[in-house]
Structure formats: C-alpha cells, structure tokens
Design brief:
alpha+beta, Alpha-Beta Plaits, DNA binding, transposase activity, Transposase_17, Transposase_17_sf, Transposase IS200-like domain-containing protein
Length: 183
C-alpha cells in the first residue's frame, strides 16, 4: 500500500494500532506519556483538531504547519520514543506499532467534521464507554474553557458553535446506538 504523502497545510487523519492488535497502552500513565511525547515532538509542526487514545490504537486529526519531511521525521521520533519507553516499562522487546502510521488526507470540511465526530465517539463504539466522560480524547477539551493545545475556536466555528458541536455529537451517538441495535 502506497502511503499518502503529507503536505503542508493539509488536514489528515493519522492513526495506527499495536502490531498484531496488541495493546499500546496498558494504563492511564502510558496514555499520559503518549500525549506528553506527542506535544514534545509535534506541537508547532502540526495543529490538533481531535484525538482519541484507545487501548490498542489511536486516532489523531491534524493539520500540517511545517514541511512534510520535518513532520514525518517528528512523527518517527515521537513513535520511537514512545515505543522504547513503553517496551522498557513492561519489559518487552520488538516493534510496538504496525509498520507505518496510516494517514488519510481530508478532502473537505464535511469530511473533517465527520472525522472529529468519529474520533470522539470511538470509546462508545469500541468499548461502550460514555464518550463525554472518556479522559483520553479531545472531546472534553472542546467543551471546557480550560487552556488547551487543540484548535478549539477553529473547530467550534466549523460546527457553528459549542451548542451545535455538542448536539452533533449526541445525534451521531444516537445514530450509532440505533445502528448497532439492528445488527
């Protein structure tokens, strides 16, 4: 599979999972460290529009602010630093992530909005958790007025404001719930 080339000012869905579906996070501390390393290596080079960390995979919604080579190298350094620390922490060796991180370029604002909803609802879809309470997604950062590194104002503007942002998430959640009842 040919990897999508990252381009400056492009919006992307970045995701990956543990090799053979293995856990990439065993506890909350792993997830906190992942986010800390993510900020350390990538903040400024990208803008964050959404994220969600699950036990065996993650999703990031980003915009590139820097050149493709710089961002790709930063992602490589980030993933390597996390994998080495994780492996050391649990006395494990070998690859942690599938070979290359996946990336899909977002074609328009509708796709961007749908992806943000999908990413935030991941805990509900995969684990049955209440997405509103899930600590390791960006949803709470959007509805809070605490300082954040995500592009809160830009995303809320995209959704037509905070009320509509919340409404869209609740509508999508209900749609997923109804869909799963008929399967």
């Amino acid at each position: 599979m040919k990897l999508e080339v990252l381009e400056k000012d492009g919006y992307y869905h970045i995701y990956n999972r543990g090799i053979n579906g293995c856990l990439i996070f065993e506890n909350d501390e792993n997830k906190k460290f992942f986010l800390k390393q993510f900020s350390k290596y990538l903040l400024g080079k990208i803008s964050i529009f959404g994220y969600c960390l699950m036990d065996n995979h993650f999703h990031l919604v980003i915009r590139l602010n820097d050149d493709e080579k710089i961002v790709t190298q930063a992602f490589s350094n980030f993933f390597n630093s996390y994998a080495k620390a994780f492996n050391k922490d649990i006395d494990r060796t070998g690859s942690l992530f599938e070979k290359h991180f996946k990336r899909i370029r977002l074609s328009d604002e509708v796709y961007l909005k749908q992806l943000i909803l999908y990413v935030h609802l991941n805990p509900k879809h995969h684990l049955g958790f209440d997405f509103k309470e899930y600590k390791f997604s960006s949803y709470q950062a959007f509805i809070s007025d605490k300082e954040t590194k995500i592009e809160r104002e830009e995303v809320l503007r995209l959704f037509g404001g905070l009320e509509n942002f919340i409404f869209c998430h609740n509508q999508r959640k209900d749609f997923l719930t109804e869909k799963h009842t008929f399967e």
